[in-house]
Write a structure and sequence with these properties.
57% helix
């Protein structure tokens, strides 16, 4: 359900919002991510103009497995 909701935002050209929702979910449920997934998420966040010091992005590093 969450993934479909995020994809719906992508369909409306709201990629940034979709990515934020996915990152929020990952952080809220303490989903472990690999180093590679973390690096990809950071690069996407930076490419989209997000600050890594705000919101769920600042918590992603603590979820690396």
């Amino acid at each position: 359900m969450l993934l479909q909701g995020a994809l719906d935002y992508v369909g409306y050209s709201e990629e940034g919002l979709a990515f934020e929702i996915l990152c929020d979910h990952i952080c809220e449920y303490d989903v472990s991510i690999s180093d590679e997934e973390y690096d990809e998420a950071v690069q996407l966040a930076l490419d989209m103009g997000f600050s890594l010091e705000e919101g769920s992005f600042k918590h992603l590093k603590s979820l690396k497995s």
